Amino acid sequence: MLIDALENCLLALISYFYIIIFFFIYFLFNLLPLVFSPAMDLRAMFHIHEQGEEEELLQKDSNPNHRHRERIFRPRISLFGLNEEEVRSRYRFSTEVILELYEQIQQDIEPNCERNHAVPGMVKLLSALHYFSSASFQGTVSALSGISQPSFSRHLTQVLKAINKLTPQYIVFPSDKTAIQTIKDGFHKMSAFPNVMGSIDCTHVALSPPTEDIYRNSKNFHSLNVQMVCASDMRILNLVAGYPGSTHDSYILKHSSLHSILTSGNLPEGWLLGDDAYPLTEWLLTPIKDPKTAAQKQYNAAHKAAHSAIERTFGSLKSRFRCLDRSGGVLQYSPEKGAQIILACCILHNLAVSRNLDVEIVDDLETPPPVPPVSKEENTQAGKQTRMRVINRYFT
Fold first, then answer.
1. Where are the transmembrane segments (predicted)?
2. 146, 282, 341, 345: which has the fewest C-beta neighbours closer than 10 Å?
């Protein structure tokens, strides 16, 4: 009996020994590589917003012919951790407005793949906003954003397309009487000038010199000449952004869709206000060159006050988005992509205006290139009659 009991105990110990050996071998070949794997870190276990762009660096070890790849993740930019003042300073928008904009373009900028370290849409948007506001070079913005320069370039294009799809929502020249009357009331309140549907002028955005010399303007630097029409509250109503810097302001207007709208006869009575770079017509009134009477001087004073809205718009736009002003540098892109950047900034400007986000006008903005006035022969007889009627009716 004693011998049988000892045999049973011995068999049990041998069974336990084999079980322990089995689990040891299983752990050695299956679990141990995962425990010590360099990829098994916190970034693989937790999804965080500030995950970095995956970069592969080749590093040499003691064997000069042997290289191994090490993954490095840069910290990415985020709204989290910034107070509201810092957000406004860096991106020129409040956190609330940035989140609102993100919701509008989210479907167009979020990554389509399931890759662990794909760049989130919010990172793309913040990188673009930082570039628009700071005018920093791509390399600087990409480094601060935590993404590589080639990635930033791709993502900027994606964000531009997404924002510019919002054009019909944010940049619209009004066609209904109620909206037009609201604009007229705004100009009349600020200047006492009647029936003003908008203030028109052009501004230049500097470019890295393209191959065509036609982009060289009268100040001898390369640019796009950008036509804008604004309301009294600096909201941009119409935009033409693709013309070379040497193009005259009046030529841009004449060949724009706005010209067709204004000459169609479908709008209620009213006019734009422009300077002497435009011809005097029945729908675009210019100042009198040498006013003689008190009524003419009063007309010119009211015209200047109303037309100043477009100058304030340019100042606000370029102070918010320094990439558009030569004092902040030049756009290092083709004219076509430069026009896309201008359009996106104008959409964002209108978003800021609609949310009452003011910006301090900087002092070092580039003085615009001089524009020669149009010849007297280009002023129409109908325009002269309209201007005289306005002077006699409202300023006498």
1. 16-36
2. 282
